[in-house]
Amino acid sequence: MNTSAPISVDKFGRTYTWQHGVRRITKQDVGVLLIILLVGGVLRFVYPEVIDWSNDHSDIALLAQQFAYGKGIPLTGQPSSAVIPHSPVYIYPSIIPFSITDNPVLASTVSAFLNLIGVAIIWLIGLRYFGRIVAGVAGIAYAVNPWVLGYSRSIWSGDHRAMFVSLGVLLGLLGFLEGKRWAQVLCLPVLLVGIQTHYAGYTLLPLYLLFLWIGRGKVNWKTMASSFVLGILVLLPYVSGILITLLGETLSATTIRPQPRDFSLREIAKPYGHLFWLTTGMGTELYSARENAAELRAQAMFPTILWTVQGVAAFLGLVSLWKHYAREVAAVLSVWALLTVVVFTWPIIGVYPHYFIPVIPALALLIGIGVAWLIKASTRLSKVLGVSIAGMYGVIFVSQAMFWLVSLAYLDTHFTPSQFGFGTPIHYLMDVRNELKQHKNIVFITNRDWLDFSRTGSRVFAPFLRSTTTCLRDVKIGGDYAVIPNEPFAAVFAPRTPADALLSALYRSDNSTVVPLRSGEGVYTINRIERLPEWSKSIMTPVQPVTFSNGAQLIGYSSTSSQLTLQWALPQAVEDNSMYSVKLFDAENQLLSEGEAEFWPGRNWCTGDQLFTWLDIDIPEQATLLQVTLASSALEPSAAESGALAAQNGVKATIQLHEK
Prior knowledge:
The chain is α+β, with helices and mostly antiparallel strands. The protein is built from 22 helices and 16 strands. α8 packs parallel to α10 (221-247).
């Protein structure tokens, strides 16, 4: 059988080769694929418990558990940075693993397995349309890319969506270039699975329009009708969720707030910097250990700057793509690789490397095309030179694999205290979970800093304690509130929490367990509170309970000249968050002073708990009347417009302080 590629001439007189329909997969090809998958599998499945985990990951796990245990089908994912909810599609792959175990390692393994399938898809696209050398180089480049490896193990934000986009592209080529009708049917729904998982993915929708144009002479519109129906079904959960959200009270169009970017050269160039990182594999240490990046690079014992030659290969691959291969295939790969970065060049919305996750497979293919061209061109001059080129890229791929292994070992033992640092590896959190499984009521005392809280609060542990714990609560240091459960509980002081005399008096005990983390990261201290603490900050004056619309009851107060403390009885957890406002009047009903503050988030409420909140406010001696309003907000407290909330109508508690 002739396995050489046919030579064709386009309408401009340029020659190109097209591998389609020429080469069948041989045993040798299968052997190469198995080696690539073995390398990719080892790198994805090694150190399976070194997984970064935070609130975002837990939210996904909780939604998957909700489905797995019959509590409803998620119609939207977690909110994006622009407040727009993500599609729920990226949650669905985690449903089966979380129905088997609450330990997230299995869900992470499933995500890594999906990404490994993506490696095989890239290899197959390379083999079918570009040849064996391209397939092998592209497959191994994608298998060892440190960015891909990091994303492959995460369930966060649809990091596994690249596999579905790659599969959609393969189906598009099979269906619209080669005329296979079954692939025409499946292309659109599969592409939509990958594209809808993050709003940046919608920049790849023109790929499907390009496929329709390529296959305009091969399309059976009855077949396409089936494809469109399947596409609608794929989008139906997300569209339903968005409509319910927008028509409900939880989100309005005015609350959508894309992260702004400055109209500056730096911001315009930023997407191209991300694309360069993702192409070459450089920069992962700046996102996983920014403050320790130099130390991590030194431990890898390889100058990662040499990886820039992969960028050279990708550029040469783009040139070679248009010079030597079918225009249709070149157009598809170019749109796949470049359209997203072009769209995000305009500085309208904030941009991050994970926006380009579905693009990395196309970049790997460009690297494969470029390296193949370099090897062939250099071999014509000298076989030694050709072997040297191949060896150079081989060394780079080996060094990337080694860098990933060194990174995992380093991140498992080194703490980086910044936003761009690898969170607590999951096996440390499992040690904490094992100590907490015996407790049904738990209070976490955490740092108020948003980053620390997102990595140490109760939400982080909620999926792991789903089957053993009745109620989880968060009390933030400096949050101006404290809670006393109505039965014995565990009080967990998270790492790096500053000293607080009041909360220490309430939640510290002699019966405690310390769970250490990485060096410099701190410890979890678990206090067993068998005898319920008493409120000692001030003497509370009980009042006739006043029940607000969310079920919370005001049951007492105390005051000084500069602070007001309120005592509340709480119902079960609620979806909404709230703010409370207070007003003080004199005997003639003249307003003397007023103030407002965030109320305790509703997800922390547990039936029978007593909540104490305090507010710094001027309380004149002539004040005789206290009015308290509790107003609901669908937003997170930190995002709420407090003035607008205080103005909402609601139940008002009026308390007579004293007569003058």
